[in-house]
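Hello again, I could really use a second opinion on something today. I've been staring at a protein lately and its backbone has me curious. Can you walk me through what the tokens say about the fold? Take your time with it, there's no hurry, and the full record follows here:
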Amino acid sequence: MEMEKRLTLELRNKKPAEVKELVLDNCRSDDGKIVGLSSDFENLEFLSMINVNLLSVSNLPKLNKLRKLELSDNRISGGLEVLAERTPNLTHLNLSGNKIKDINTLEPLKKLPNLHSLDLFNCEVTMLINYRESMFALLPQLTYLDGFDADDQEAPDSDPEADGDGLDDEYDENGEEGEEEDDDEEDELDEEVIDDEEDDEEDDLEGEEEEDGVDDEVRLFLLA
């Protein structure tokens, strides 16, 4: 499917300004360029164009609010200065599987002050000696390169809701265990209460028997 047609389908009768996320993966670009996307998508925050045979991002419109851009599995080899000019607030950029061969090609990304995460998996540039050290030196604003920070610590899960669910699950499990323990304690207490009540009843019976015995002795004495 052509990119422009796919774009129309993704809109689903919405106005471009109403769209915050746009996924155009696996469609066909026009001669390796972006088509159909305009600055009317002024509130776009997430844009994905994976495997659309892109050669260039020169037709990317001005998208001031764009924060995450997925461009993996294309044929981009340069021209990244466009990103610095038109996506000034970009925080995450994925260029994995493109034709980027040298570090100088990535130098324009220095002008993206908020860029914290960059992925270059399966790009030739990753094979260079001291690749990671050179990249962190070139782009000091980066926190994560290919999913790891400068100290080789893996990036945390990017989906906070998933983390929250995990915490909730753990909390629920502990809660259930706690409830089971509470139930056991309550059962034990109930048993103790029943035992105490039975003991009291036995004591009462014994007391009544003793009283009956005394009364009988008194009656016998009087009769005598």
In short: The domain at 3-156 is CATH 3.80.10.10 (Leucine-rich repeat, LRR (right-handed beta-alpha superhelix)).
